[in-house]
Amino acid sequence: QVQLVESGGGLVQPGGSLRLSCAASESLFNMYGMGWYRQAPGKQRELVARDITGGTTNYATAVEGRFTISRDNAENTVYLQMNSLKPEDTAVYYCYADQGASEYYTRYWGQGTQVTVSS
């Protein structure tokens, strides 16, 4: 079972930046893909960004050009750099990891980290 530990959330003013981290308990090369979802109060959980191992990176339209997903394979860590933050980015952010291959994988979730964008 893959353990995911997130960090980096907090309170930031509009226009500010935050970097979220997601540390995995095993090698990222064992993962088909990793990424981030978010869930705002009263809303459904939505995909923010995903990175397919050795493949493509995708972003939600709402964050395109402002957020960047990246990996440090040596540290088994995935990051989400968030710039030009807006109040509507306020949500709990969840990291996930898809362990396995494209044909069959198991999805694991982190515990979530709160991001609040407010003046």
Listing every helix as H and every strand as E from the N terminus to the C terminus, the arrangement reads: EEEEEEEEEEE
Largest sheet: 7 strands, mixed
Radius of gyration: 14 Å
Q: In DSSP terms, counting alpha (H) and pi (I) runs of 4 or more, how many helices?
A: 0
SS content category: mainly beta
Helix share, percent:
under 10%
- Strand element count: 11
Uncertain residue segments: none
The multimeric state of the shown protein is single chain
> What fraction of the residues are assigned to beta strands by DSSP?
over 45%
Cα end-to-end separation: 40 Å
Q: Judging from the principal axes of the Cα atoms, what is the shape?
A: globular
Plain-language structure description:
Strand 9 (91-101) and strand 10 form a beta hairpin. Strands 2, 4, 5, 6, 9, 10 and 11 form a 7-stranded mixed sheet that branches. A 4-stranded antiparallel sheet has the order 1-3-8-7, with no helix packed on it. It has strands at 4-7, 10-12, 18-24, 31-39, 46-52, 57-59, 67-72, 77-82, 91-101, 104-109, 113-117. 30% of the residues are buried. It is mainly beta. The protein is globular and about 40 Å long. The protein has no helices and 11 strands.
